[in-house]
Amino acid sequence: MNIVCIVQARTGSTRLPGKVIKKICGKTVLEHDIDRLKRVKNIDKIIIATTTLEKDNAIVEEAKRMDVDYFRGSEEDVLSRYYYAAKENNGDVVVRITSDCPLIDSEVTEKIIQYYLYNNAKYDYVSNTIDRTYPRGLDTEVFSFKALEKAFNEAESLRDKEHVTPYIWDNPSIFRLAQYKNEIDYSNLRWTLDTKEDFELISKIYGYLYKEKGNEFNLEDILNLYVGHPELREINENIEQKQI
Questions:
Q1: Contact (Cβ atoms closer than 8 angstroms) between residue 179 and residue 103
Q2: Which candidate, 237, 136, 240, places its Cα nearest to that of 186?
Q3: Strand boundaries in 14-122, DSSP class E
Q4: Secondary structure letter of residue 238 according to DSSP
Q5: What are the beta bridge partners of residue 67?
Q6: What is residue 106's three-state secondary structure?
Q7: How many Cβ atoms are within 10 Å of 52's Cβ, its own excluded?
Q8: Parallel, antiparallel or unpaired: strands 141-144 and 125-127
Q9: Cα within 13 Å of Cα(3), Cβ side
Q10: pLDDT digits (tens, 9 = 90+) for 120-160
């Protein structure tokens, strides 16, 4: 079973342009994403899925420099970008990660993939993103290529094509869905990168943890950091998430 992790990335962003090539502790956000995902033991291949636009050549260069595969496709129809990237790379199982998650926890992602693999006879799709218990920014979706192909062939709305998986999780009568939950609910924490406030927070977290631990720091390390530095929570607590 070939497990491909497809990371969507582009330089265009309405709230924080060029966010994935901004640098934190001397490395781009995308490089941190890749570093952290390379620690996930049950991923066979990482693919950076970007657009065919010239401005996203920078994304391709980062992928090459980090020695991971890349795929270029539609800017707006991200669902098609995922489908063709997975098909070209013979993916049986697709792990969806977005590049605005430089705090992605390899241990959490690995557990969600493992849960899917143990239960793939029962489920087409497993994630921690619908009924949230993890901080936003540790988002991991795992689904079969067959589910992706069905969504690609049947989804018609711009929303479904832009956001990749809504057609799957909006149709529980068609797809078998499961949610991976943490024992403690940390869904009120925002660790994704979409605004300058998010960038300030993530930069400070890296500033405290990266020198000692590199990209091995995880969910527990950040939670412990919050205990000693409760002011971190305030940096982006008023940011509203864009609705899908």
A1: no
A2: 136
A3: 23-24, 27-28, 45-51, 69-73, 93-98
A4: T
A5: none
A6: helix
A7: 11
A8: antiparallel
A9: 20
A10: 999 999 999 999 999 999 999 999 999 999 999 999 999 99
Average pLDDT for residues 196-200, to the nearest whole number?
A: 97
HSE-CB at 37 with a 13 A cutoff on CA atoms is 32
Tell me the per-residue pLDDT of 74-91, one tens digit each, with 9 for 90 and over: 999 999 999 999 999 999
Size of the chain in residues: 244
- Characterize the bridge pairing of strands 69-73 and 45-51: parallel
Render pLDDT for 6-58 as a digit per residue (tens, 0 to 9). 999 999 877 788 999 999 999 999 999 999 999 999 999 999 999 999 999 99
Q: Dig out the tokens for 129 from the structure.
A: 């993103």
**C-alpha distances in angstroms, 85 versus 68, 96, 126, 143?**
13, 12, 20, 14
Asked if residue 224 lies in contact with residue 232, where contact means CB atoms within 8 angstroms, the answer is no
Using the structure block, give the residue that is written with the tokens 């636009």.
53
User: What's the token pair of residue 207?
Assistant: 């500033």
Q: Copy the structure tokens of residue 47.
A: 């693919």
Picking from 82, 118, 96, the residue whose alpha carbon sits closest to that of residue 5 is 96
Give the whole-angstrom CA distance, residue 146 versus residue 32.
30
pLDDT grade, residue 178 (50/70/90)? very high
DSSP 8-state class, residue 20: G
